[in-house]
Design a protein that fits this description.
Binding site for FAD: 48, 106, 297
Strand order of the largest sheet: 5-4-13-14-15-12-16
Protein name: Flavin-dependent monooxygenase
Number of domains: 2
Radius of gyration: 21 Å
Cofactor: FAD
Structural class: alpha/beta
Keywords: Cytoplasm, FAD, Flavoprotein, Monooxygenase, NADP, Nucleotide-binding, Oxidoreductase
CATH architecture of the largest domain: 3-Layer(bba) Sandwich
Distance between the termini: 40 Å
Order of helices and strands: EHEEHHEEEHEEEEEHEHHEEEHHEEHHH
Main location: cytoplasm
Largest sheet: 7 strands, mixed
CATH class of the largest domain: Alpha Beta
Strand content: 15-25%
Helix content: 25-40%
Number of helices: 12
CATH superfamily of the largest domain: FAD/NAD(P)-binding domain
Length: 368
């Protein structure tokens, strides 16, 4: 393909994977990110990288060996606990050589991708305010009236994508499920009973439309989630800055759960973070539009059931490969969209069904 001006909005996993593949093929790309720096905020919890999606993408990007250096195969352990007794009712341990979906911290994986890019690829502190088409390309608008034209703008800017607004105009919808996130630091030393209950991977308990998840991260950290059905504005009069008030609310919601499990709520370190679960309608698709395309959550925001990051990486590397190998920009984007859209629609349908199982009363562990 002849040289084209390519911009990626968003320095998440999918956008960075796309940029990495483009640079491997000698193509120029610029990534615009609203965050002021790579370490401006925590990047979230642990991710399971599937051998048939995320790991395929990392191999395409030439980063699989670096990933394996940081991955935690033992993190594949899945443990189900009884909400009333805290007894372990299922404990699925990975085989010694099982590396089908090892865990890695999202921040570590993002760091691998960032380190692989040429200096200056990511323009930090440059949020895209508006995207418009120009007939055969797209224009990005930034603060203070600054604009820049590109042959292709890739929307890798997540749930509330500005690029998606220009392409489909579709906004995410509240799913009816909310997550409240909190954590345990240096858990093996400071919270040994809860560390033992969690195991080396994910432990979960659920009953009556409520769940508690605890997931091992690196460096002894356990990230936890209280998950339940709630109206979108359930917290309006609560105020998440008031840790004691949030804790009291959660303890009331989880009344009747075993005291050993409630200790996740009472003994955690720091505050609580509200993470309401939004999803894009299924199917979400678009007519091919010169100058624009989407990947990752911008294209197919779905419940967090262990596939989102994997699909974002696969989207990014497949798009990058198509752009590097096709005869024209239009041919490359069409090829990518023809493959990505059916795959994401089918996966989104499965995840929509899986969300009900996440809070069901069965004891099958589901990755959060």
């Amino acid at each position: 393909m002849t040289s084209s001006r390519i911009a990626i909005a968003g320095a998440g996993l999918g956008g960075l994977a796309c940029a990495r593949v483009l640079q491997l093929h000698g193509l120029d790309v610029t990534v615009f990110e609203q965050e002021p720096s790579a370490g401006a905020r925590p990047q979230g919890g642990t991710l399971d990288m599937h051998a048939d999606t995320g790991q395929v993408a990392l191999r395409t990007a030439g980063l699989h060996e670096r990933f394996r250096e940081l991955a935690r195969p033992e993190g594949q352990q899945m443990r189900a606990l009884d909400a009333r007794t805290a007894a372990v009712v299922r404990d699925e341990l990975p085989a010694e050589d099982d590396e089908f979906r090892p865990e890695i911290d999202r921040g570590q994986l993002r760091g691998i991708l960032l380190d692989s890019l040429s200096p200056g690829t990511v323009r930090w502190g440059r949020p895209v305010e508006e995207v418009t088409t120009t007939g055969d390309g797209a224009r990005l608008s930034f603060a203070e009236g600054v604009t820049a034209d590109y042959d292709l703008v890739v929307g890798a800017d997540g749930a509330w994508s500005r690029v998606r607004r220009a392409l489909t105009g579709v906004l995410p919808e509240y799913s009816g499920v909310t997550f409240v996130e909190f954590g345990l630091d240096d858990a093996d030393r400071r919270h040994p009973a809860l560390a033992t209950l969690t195991g080396q991977g994910t432990a979960m308990a659920k009953i009556g439309g409520q769940a508690l998840f605890a997931q091992r991260n690196s460096n002894g950290h356990i990230r936890c989630y209280a998950i339940f059905y709630a109206p979108e504005e359930w917290h309006a009069d609560l105020g998440f800055a008031d840790t004691d008030a949030v804790r009291a609310n959660l303890l009331e919601r989880y009344a009747g759960w075993h005291p050993d499990l409630l200790r996740f709520l009472t003994d955690h370190d720091g505050g609580f973070t509200h993470r309401p679960l939004y999803v894009l309608p299924v199917p979400h698709a678009w007519t091919h539009t010169p100058g624009l395309t989407l990947l990752g959550d911008a294209a197919h925001l779905m419940p967090p059931l262990g596939v989102g990051a994997n699909l974002a990486l696969l989207d990014g590397t497949e798009l990058g490969t198509a752009l590097a190998t096709a005869r024209s920009l239009g041919e490359a984007v069409r090829k990518y969209e023809t493959s990505m859209l059916p795959r994401s629609i089918e996966t989104a349908k499965a995840c929509a069904e899986g969300l009900g199982h996440l809070l069901g009363d069965d004891v099958h562990p589901v990755a959060a």
